[in-house]
Amino acid sequence: MAPARETQSSKRPRSRRNAPPKTVDEYIARVPDSARGMLEKLRATIRAVVPKDATEVISYRMAAFKTRRILVWYAAFSDHCSLFPGAAMIEQFKNELKSFRTSKGTIQFTLDKPLPAALIKEIVQARLAAAKD
What we know:
Layout lengths: L7 H4 L12 H7 L2 H15 L7 E5 L2 E5 L3 E7 L3 E5 L2 H6 L8 E2 L4 E4 L6 H16 L1
Antiparallel strand pairs: 1-2, 2-3, 3-4, 4-6, 5-6
Helix pairs in contact: 3-5
């Protein structure tokens, strides 16, 4: 019986582009130009609300802000940026989020509309308050 043949993918080292980013700056650098500006605005909006000692980390291959635990994740996709504040925040702000696509724990912001910075700040502040409990 012939030995098992190695597949092409098992021989190739993982490309740097497919390796998970190690830092938030590396994550953002990989985002397509079309979404990078909005993602940077989202990052700055969150940064304006979180405590000064909050750190930025990569978690689940996405950017996140963390104190003792992850407060919120944020990410860019081909046609939108997303904020992941958790299901409780989506429920708490469901009336304010009616004009956005949401799922159990995600809010999507399309690239063709301005980022709702004031609403994002409110959501992150509420998430911070909930994290203290």
